[in-house]
Amino acid sequence: MATATLTIDLDAIAANWRALDRLSTPVVQTAAVVKADAYGLGIDRVAPALARAGARRFFTAVAEEGARLRQILGPGPQIGILGGHMAGDTEMIHDLDLTPMLNSLQQVTRHLESLPGHPFGIQLDTGMNRLGMEEAEWRAIAPIVLEAGPVFLMSHLACADEPDNPMNAAQLAQFHHMTDGLGIPRSFAATGGILLGPDYHFDLTRPGIGLYGGQPFDAAQPVVTLSLPVIQTRDVAKGETVGYANAWTADRATTVATLSAGYADGLPRTLSNKVRLWDGDTPVPLIGRVSMDLITADIGHLSEIPRSLDILGPHQGVDDLAAIAGTIGYEILTALGPRYARRHVTRQTGGQA
Length: 353
Ligand SMILES: *Cc1c(COP(=O)(O)O)cnc(C)c1O
What we know:
The protein is an alpha/beta fold and 353 residues long. The protein has two domains: 10-211, TIM Barrel (Alpha-Beta Barrel), CATH 3.20.20.10; 224-345, Lyase, Ornithine Decarboxylase, Chain A, domain 1 (Beta Barrel), CATH 2.40.37. It has helices spanning 10-22, 35-40, 43-53, 63-73, 90-95, 105-114, 135-148, 166-179, 191-195, 318-325, 329-335, and strands at 5-9, 29-30, 32-33, 57-60, 78-81, 99-102, 121-123, 153-154, 186-187, 204-205, 224-236, 241-242, 248-249, 254-260, 276-279, 282-287, 294-298, 308-312, 341-346, 351-352. The strands form four sheets. Strands 1, 11, 14, 15, 16, 17, 18, 19 and 20 form a nine-stranded mixed β-sheet that branches. Strands 3-4-5-6-7-8-9 form a seven-stranded parallel β-sheet. Bound molecules: pyridoxal-5'-phosphate. Residues 33, 35, 82, 156, 190-192, 206-210 line the site of pyridoxal-5'-phosphate.
């Protein structure tokens, strides 16, 4: 196998969706967030697996992603566009039956004028100051908006991965203050918000990262394995150096393996000299700098030269790698590069789906 292989367990994604769905009461619907190519894992295979698991509502960031998702899923499922109704997207929103989450007076005007009667949601800002209407703007146009009948009102939490952060309760109170008594379905919680408990669930939850095995959903089944092929090995003597800037020096005679993947494939350069790879259950240190297309590992302690080593798998998940690299699991996932062969597996079919 010449290219690095990213194996994606579609059953684990489906199981994670069901587990998050079970965390809320039966009256709460659970959507699936599949923006950024399903967090880098391949929307064309991931979205149908989520639909088979029971998801009926999906979210993407921009209309182009939503259009692609409509072609994948066909008519039926609701596709929400978190970026709302942007200039130039009207035709796509109409033709592919997308549901924009309008976030400003300008977007509301654009939508109601260009596509009267076409479904939409409303995005409210409850303190994150990123997307959505603030209270005064919302109060001013709420009568017109409510008349047009939004499918739901939504907002997003800034600190949901920190259960003790007072921001959570403050945003919850503000969401109630802006939406109570309006009789419109509401959506507030992403993965972190679901874990904060039923007060945060309202009518529709919007998990993303938890579906893909990431924190803060600790109980998630792991989803990805990333195997990097060994393309050359060499013996080095004590005192020899390896890679750019001579960043690693052998303290004994050993064997060095060069593997096919680097920072251009989403392996952060901050992993240089820090992370371990795995030969089955045996850890293998990455040595020297991460290059654009290559990394090097000290395999002197292995009895045989491995065909490949895993950098993501049962011993090291996306959040472990993120912690070493100084980032978050979301960034590790969405940076996983286009050069990897993506292999989507399910247990029912016993292999490649
Ligand atoms: C990305 C996003 C989500 C999903 O968040 P996760 O933390 O990945 O579960 C939900 N809602 C909005 C508005 C988002 O931007």
